[in-house]
């Protein structure tokens, strides 16, 4: 397929003019739709023609400069052809973002927690409708190319952007991405509602130094885990392109990964429009220093498979200049421009942009935005996504007839927070609102945020910190001698020592505006979250007020910065620690005491705790603390002591370590930040109008110590995710409770998979998520403990039984064979495990599969070093800037294992392609890194990490038979390929 595509691109320059003339001659004035005054009948406007014909016709009419202008995110209009401007990149992760009020659905990780692809497709379709509705107005910056879904598998719950993804499992991720993308496209690849761009390709799961860290992907992790999450949506034509990620992969920036053309375009017969992430083209020259000039960088990106550059905001000049320079210097040919421009125009044609009536979806107007149907869907999705974690002694559901007085307390009890890629809430139903709505006039609902109200007094001057009293606030100053309202602040504890301060004077948050600290913010947020502080207690009992907003960005200041008076009028500014003001903290009102008073004697206490999406973990900021904020834990304990009928709602964007609370609290419910209908959906679940059936899409760990470094991407070696994790999780992958119970019959093999009878054995209607896992008992290679292969969410009334069919094909049991670089299904016995979670297996069987036996390695053939079986002290690196992966030793004694190699009658020579600035050696050993030495190859150094030479070594007579071969490398050496002959 890729070869066909390349031939098509090469042929365009010569074939297009002829084709265009033929089309014009044949169609004449019968083609509908205005284009330019002198020729209203262009074939590219004729929907009766194929997409390729229309693209080729339009491309033939564009000048070189016009084609180059299409390669930037902001594509200008071409008036002479009647072509309007076009923009890639409307954000639509869980609703339309940044364009005004629109329906806000649960965060992506919440949508996936429904385990219901059909529902997620409906959500995607609703979002696609709203994108179209906004597009009718077409102000600058809006467009039908949407940047969603996110298919990065959530291998580490500390990733700051955890809420953007779906699951730690690639199969579940792929299923959800396909469903959401299908909804966005409308389901017909030739007639697109919107053009979704799946992101971020590839291996993007850390924010720390995200543009300079390299994600090491050994071939099995690349194929079985990372690519597996992206491939289904592309293969199903549920998305129309990929966005590359900021990070490097195996030493090469993802912006220029050859996988775009070599692999991704091979997953579909459709043309893809691939884009860079924002400002990533400039990183190639700046932070990554991978190329010397932007012309080299942009040329390499186009060659690799990028079509559209996202950089310099609306200013396309740097991009077009770089591309023109690349053309003039011979780094690019016009056919390269034609290929990229053709991909872009292909998508624009399929969107109906050039159709006379705007295409199939051209008449959708803004009445769809936040329509009653979408509000109803948002409520349904939010309820279906909630996960019941604990329900001791049937504490839930609450009975409306017996629950008249309810206290809803906690920092998230009466507010809804949104994340960076969220839309603007058209209205807010908070948890308090939702419960009040549910109880109606017969109920009594009270609330408390349960946060301390404090005042800060400078111990040296005796002056209090004060804020402005009007809506716009004023710069904070030390100018009061008493703690009046203007000197009081509500201190919200978000964990890791981070506080936000809300002024009691006007209800606005204090934030830094690059000059002063002003109480003028409605909520913490923004790209730079300037509303973060830390109160650091000193040995003398006083506090320093540390500004923590900058800590989300590295190296703004070399040292921590604090607050202190910097003006004659006492205005607070940034100072070094030694000049920081020392404050006494006076608690004007105790949040815990207020909450305890609110819950005493009530029929039920609902405590809503969790995260603030702009603070606890977000783009640019990974989490370092997986627990609840200490103040929130203390709140829950105090409320439980005051009212035994306590229900805890944990509202976060990620798994949380709940510590002792998990044992002490009778009922725990988890939700993501679930959008405008959060409160109504929560009340539906708490009072039993909706039976919870959400299931966790990630393992909930007990401690950060259960995880390796966030920068370690080798799931197989480091036992990541439920597939390999051998510890005891707090909550298992796939876990979730219901208000009813389900029984499973015996799983049976049938054509195309398996079936199992599931019965609702309880007294309530409910949904069960039936999950099928497999395990390969014996393999040449380390295999997952369990691996999700199929699932289905089913609805059952009490007493009803349904036979659930779960499709699994033999090919689905394959894994990547590094000895031959291909997928393989090994002959052997496979366990088939069906149940309610990865740890709650209800029925099992086994199947004997006749596949292949992986033969011993043939190291006489040239072997790529990256195809090792095990390793220590190495990094995967770029063999060249264009393509290929090599192995680089980070220390002396680094080693690679090549298991079960057949050296036949004996190998007498070792040959390798190596690079390295300094001299180095490769030892060939048998059995272990310190086993029998059979040869040593030496290099005097090639002077460059990209300059390779061939080195050889004679092998001793011991190099024979069936052996585990180890290559032990000297520090700094790079090894690309080798053989033992």
Automatic annotation (TrEMBL):
Domain CBM6: 861-981
Source lineage: Bacteria, Bacillati, Actinomycetota, Actinomycetes, Kitasatosporales
Organism superkingdom: Bacteria
Function recorded in the entry: Catalyzes the hydrolysis of a non-reducing terminal alpha-L-arabinopyranosidic linkage in ginsenoside Rb2 (alpha-L-arabinopyranosyl-(1->6)-alpha-D-glucopyranosyl) to release alpha-D-glucopyranosyl (Rd). It is not able to hydrolyze alpha-L-arabinofuranosyl-(1->6)-alpha-D-glucopyranosyl (Rc).
GO molecular function, one term: carbohydrate binding
Database matches in Pfam families: CBM_6 (PF03422), Fn3-like (PF14310), Glyco_hydro_3 (PF00933), Glyco_hydro_3_C (PF01915)
Family membership: Belongs to the glycosyl hydrolase 3 family.
Alphabetized SMART domains for the sequence: CBD_IV (SM00606), Fn3_like (SM01217)
Protein name: Exo-alpha-(1->6)-L-arabinopyranosidase
InterPro entries xref list: BXL, CBM6, Cellulose-bd_IV, Fn3-like, Galactose-bd-like_sf, GH, Glyco_hydro_3_C, Glyco_hydro_3_C_sf
BP-aspect Gene Ontology terms: arabinan catabolic process; xylan catabolic process
Keyword set, alphabetical order: Glycosidase, Hydrolase, Signal
Signal peptide region: 1-37
Species: Streptomyces jeddahensis
């Amino acid at each position: 397929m890729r070869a066909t595509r390349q031939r098509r691109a090469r042929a365009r320059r010569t074939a297009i003019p002829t084709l265009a003339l033929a089309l014009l001659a044949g169609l004449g004035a019968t083609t509908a739709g205005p284009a330019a005054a002198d020729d209203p009948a262009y074939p590219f406007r004729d929907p009766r023609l194929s997409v390729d014909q229309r693209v080729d016709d339009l491309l033939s009419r564009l000048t070189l400069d016009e084609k180059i202008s299409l390669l930037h995110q902001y594509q200008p209009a071409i008036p002479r052809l009647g072509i309007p401007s076009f923009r890639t990149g409307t954000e639509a992760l869980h609703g339309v973002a940044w364009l005004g009020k629109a329906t806000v659905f649960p965060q992506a990780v919440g949508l996936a927690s429904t385990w219901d692809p059909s529902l997620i497709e409906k959500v995607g379709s609703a979002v696609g409708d709203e994108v179209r509705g906004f597009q009718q107005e077409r102000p600058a910056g809006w467009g039908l190319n949407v940047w969603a879904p996110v298919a990065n598998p959530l291998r580490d719950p500390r990733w700051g952007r955890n809420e953007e993804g779906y699951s730690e499992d690639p199969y579940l991720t792929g299923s959800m991405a396909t469903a959401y993308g299908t909804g966005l496209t409308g389901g017909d690849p030739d007639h697109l509602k919107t053009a979704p761009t799946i992101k971020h390709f590839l291996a993007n799961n850390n924010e720390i130094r995200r543009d300079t860290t390299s994600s090491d992907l050994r071939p099995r992790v690349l194929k079985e885990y990372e690519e597996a999450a992206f491939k289904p949506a592309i293969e199903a034509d549920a998305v129309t392109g990929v966005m590359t990620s900021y990070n490097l992969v195996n030493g090469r920036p993802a912006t220029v990964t050859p996988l775009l053309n070599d692999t991704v375009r091979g997953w579909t017969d459709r043309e893809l429009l691939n884009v860079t992430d924002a400002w990533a083209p400039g990183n190639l020259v700046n932070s990554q220093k991978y190329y010397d000039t932007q012309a080299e960088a942009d040329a390499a990106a186009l060659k690799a498979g990028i079509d559209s550059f996202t950089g310099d905001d609306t200013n396309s000049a740097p991009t077009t200049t770089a591309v023109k320079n690349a053309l003039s210097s011979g780094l690019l040919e016009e056919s390269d421009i034609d290929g990229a421009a053709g991909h872009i125009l292909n998508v624009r044609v399929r969107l109906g942009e050039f159709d006379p009536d705007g295409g199939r979806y051209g008449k959708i107007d803004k009445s769809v935005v936040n329509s009653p149907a979408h509000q109803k869907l948002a409520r349904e999705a939010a309820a279906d996504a909630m996960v019941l974690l604990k329900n001791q002694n049937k504490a839930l559901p609450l009975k409306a007839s017996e629950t008249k007085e309810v206290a809803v307390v906690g920092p998230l009890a009466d507010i809804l927070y949104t994340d960076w890629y969220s839309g603007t809430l058209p209205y807010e139903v908070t948890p308090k609102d939702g419960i009040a709505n549910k109880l109606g006039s017969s109920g009594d609902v009270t609330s408390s945020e349960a946060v301390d109200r404090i005042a800060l007094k400078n111990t040296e001057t005796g002056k209090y910190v004060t804020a402005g009293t009007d809506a716009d606030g004023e710069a904070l100053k030390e100018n009061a001698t008493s703690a009046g309202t203007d000197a009081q602040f509500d201190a919200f504890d978000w964990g890791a020592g981070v506080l936000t301060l809300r002024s009691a004077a006007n209800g606005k948050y204090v934030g830094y505006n690059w000059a002063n600290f002003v109480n003028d913010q409605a909520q913490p947020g923004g790209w730079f979250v300037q509303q973060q502080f830390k109160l650091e207690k000193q040995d003398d009992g006083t506090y320093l007020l540390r500004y923590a907003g900058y800590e989300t960005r590295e190296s703004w200041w070399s040292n921590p910065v604090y607050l202190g008076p910097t003006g004659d009028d006492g205005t607070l500014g940034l100072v070094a620690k030694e000049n920081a003001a020392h404050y006494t903290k006076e608690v004007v009102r105790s949040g815990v005491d207020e909450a305890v008073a609110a819950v005493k004697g009530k029929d039920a206490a609902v405590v809503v705790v969790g995260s603030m999406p702009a603070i606890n973990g977000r783009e640019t900021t990974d989490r370092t603390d997986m627990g609840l904020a200490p103040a929130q834990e203390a709140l829950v304990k105090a409320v439980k002591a005051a009212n035994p009928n306590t229900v805890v709602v944990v509202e976060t964007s990620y798994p949380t370590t709940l510590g002792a609370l998990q044992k002490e609290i009778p009922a725990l419910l988890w939700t993501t930040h679930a959008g405008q209908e959060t409160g109504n959906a929560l009340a539906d679940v708490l009072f039993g109008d909706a039976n919870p059936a959400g299931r966790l899409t990630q393992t909930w760990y007990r401690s950060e110590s259960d995880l390796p470094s966030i920068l370690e991407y080798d799931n197989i070696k480091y036992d990541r995710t439920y597939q390999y994790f051998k510890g005891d999780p707090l909550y298992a992958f796939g876990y979730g409770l219901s208000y009813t119970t389900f029984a499973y019959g015996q799983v049976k093999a049938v054509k195309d998979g398996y079936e199992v009878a599931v019965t609702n054995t309880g007294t309530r209607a409910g949904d069960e998520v039936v999950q099928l896992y497999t395990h390969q008992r014996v393999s040449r290679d380390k295999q997952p403990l369990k691996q999700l292969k199929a699932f289905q969410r089913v609805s059952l009334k009490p007493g009803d039984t349904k036979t659930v069919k779960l499709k699994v094909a033999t090919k689905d049991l394959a894994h990547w064979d590094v000895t031959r670089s291909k997928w393989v299904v090994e002959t052997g016995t496979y366990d088939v495990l069906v149940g309610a979670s990865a740890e709650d297996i209800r029925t099992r069987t086994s199947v004997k599969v006749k596949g292949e036996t992986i033969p011993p390695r043939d190291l006489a053939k040239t072997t790529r070093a990256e195809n090792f079986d095990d390793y220590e002290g190495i990094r995967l690196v770029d063999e060249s800037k264009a393509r290929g992966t090599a192995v680089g030793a980070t220390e002396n004694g680094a080693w690679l294992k090549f298991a079960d190699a057949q050296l036949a009658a004996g190998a007498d020579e070792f040959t390798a392609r190596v690079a390295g600035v300094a001299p180095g050696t490769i030892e060939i050993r048998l059995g272990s890194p310190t086993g029998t030495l059979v040869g040593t190859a030496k290099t005097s150094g090639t002077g460059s990490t990209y300059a390779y030479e061939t080195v050889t070594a004679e092998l001793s007579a011991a190099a024979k038979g069936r052996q585990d071969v180890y290559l032990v490398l000297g520090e700094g050496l790079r090894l690309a390929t080798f053989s033992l002959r």
